[in-house]
Design goal:
Elements (H helix, E strand, L loop, with lengths): L3 E2 L7 H12 L13 E4 L3 E5 L5 E5 L14 E6 L6 E6 L3 E6 L4 E5 L14 E6 L6 E6 L3 E6 L4 E5 L14 E6 L6 E6 L3 E6 L4 E5 L14 E6 L6 E7 L2 E6 L4 E5 L14 E6 L6 E6 L3 E6 L4 E5 L14 E6 L6 E6 L3 E6 L3 E6 L14 E11 L13
Antiparallel strand pairs: 1-14, 2-3, 3-4, 4-5, 6-7, 7-8, 8-9, 10-11, 11-12, 12-13, 14-15, 15-16, 16-17, 18-19, 19-20, 20-21, 22-23, 23-24, 24-25, 26-27, 27-28, 28-29
């Protein structure tokens, strides 16, 4: 969750630049163009993007966060009706945001803090356009807040702001997209429910919001209402945010972390918080990162995963429920192309289009048809994100 991030995918930097170029020229991607399959874990729900630009969702639906027009939980993937041309997805506590091929954004679910960006505090049970928002190339969501990166490198924010994590210099909720002042040349964004990160084109990172546990990485515990550079952090290619946790992937395939470490989510073998970025020892060859409330995930160049941090619900996928303080391989899982993390569950897309999920499952957020949590990766056999109809002939697990 989001503690969630738009940069914890394996969508390449070149792809982001290409999309930015198209949008800056006023051109939209063809609706029929194939997109990279993705999956996003929310607090208690999961969303998946098919290669044809349609979306399915499952899990808790009390606020309409599945977008199917109801508030009925779904134990298996359920299409979001009428939604096409999607290129990216993000899942918050109980709201969902999607980026469309034409650079516009739609959102649905809980809206008590204006996190849907439609100017109201009214929940929406179906995808609802964010008015006036165009030229977007990336999205990210936190607990009750949302972010959008525009093709000109600027950032817009909306939703809850009680920790100052919208970066606009105040602590008053915003119900419509609002520019983050002075923030330019951004290439990626990430946020949690209390702080935010922005990756700049020079490989440096800026952060803002709550800093009680060092989540801003600036060497202090002082909250920041405006973007503040992370000292000494360079060569970054991707970012992710957990609860008071920052994660950065460097160009050499190594990872640095900072912030809260109560469950070992920094991966440094201890449970001591860190106020500044420090390398995750022994971890290399990483191509993508994801972070949730209290656990962290890394995708390696060989298509395997390592995980660390809180494991109370088996979200680390190692078969147990003991917290892990150092990166630990997820056994039996290979061929992974995309990763994301929810509050207590983890999800991955494989190169063959199949989705694997594991961890907390009280509302069916693993998507296999039941509510028993799984401590090892479980393939959602009724769903293939590469299939034309997104369904395989396999029975439900």
């Amino acid at each position: 969750m989001k503690t969630w991030s738009s940069s914890n995918s394996t969508v390449g930097y070149c792809q982001l630049l290409a999309l930015s170029a198209l949008l800056s020229l006023g051109l939209a991607l063809p609706v029929s163009a194939s997109v990279t399959p993705k999956v996003a874990g929310g607090f208690l729900h999961t969303v998946a993007l098919r290669s044809d630009g349609t979306v399915v969702a499952w899990g808790m639906n009390a606020a309409g966060q599945l977008g199917d027009g109801s508030t009925t939980k779904r134990l298996t993937p359920t299409p979001v009706p009428g939604l096409t041309g999607v290129s990216a997805i993000a899942a918050g506590s109980d709201h969902t945001v999607v980026l469309k091929n034409d650079g516009t954004v739609a959102a649905w679910g809980n809206n008590r803090h204006g996190q849907l960006g439609d100017g109201s505090a009214t929940d929406r049970h179906i995808p609802t356009p964010v008015p006036g928002l165009t030229g977007v190339t990336a999205i990210a969501v936190g607990t009750d807040n949302s972010m959008a990166l525009k093709s000109d490198g600027t950032v817009l924010v909306w939703g809850e702001i009680d920790h100052g994590h919208l970066g606009i210099g105040s602590t008053s909720d915003r119900y419509s997209p609002t520019p983050v002042p002075g923030l330019t040349e951004v290439t990626a964004i990430a946020c949690s429910g209390n702080h935010s990160l922005a990756l700049k084109k020079d490989g440096t990172v800026a952060t803002w919001g709550d800093n009680s546990w060092g989540g801003l990485g600036d060497g202090t515990s002082i909250p920041r209402l405006l973007p503040t550079p992370v000292p000494g952090l360079t060569g970054v290619t991707a970012i992710a945010a957990g609860q008071q946790l920052g994660v950065a992937l460097k160009s050499d395939g190594t990872v640095v972390t900072w912030g809260d470490n109560e469950y070992g989510q920094l991966g440094n073998g201890s449970t001591t918080k860190r106020l500044s970025p420090a390398p995750v020892a022994g971890l290399s060859g990483v191509t993508a990162i994801a972070a949730s409330y209290y656990h962290t995930v890394a995708l390696k160049s060989d298509g395997t995963l390592v995980t660390w941090g809180c494991n109370a619900h088996g979200q680390l996928g190692d078969g147990g429920n003991k917290n892990l303080r150092t990166p630990t391989p997820v056994p039996g899982l290979s061929g992974v192309s995309y990763i994301n993390a929810g509050f207590g569950h983890t999800v991955a897309v494989k190169s063959d289009g199949m989705v694997a999920s594991w961890g907390f499952n009280n509302y069916g957020q693993l998507g296999y048809g039941g509510t028993v949590e799984r401590h090892t990766p479980n393939v959602v056999r009724q769903l293939n994100l590469l299939a034309s109809n997104g369904v395989t002939a396999h029975p439900v697990n």
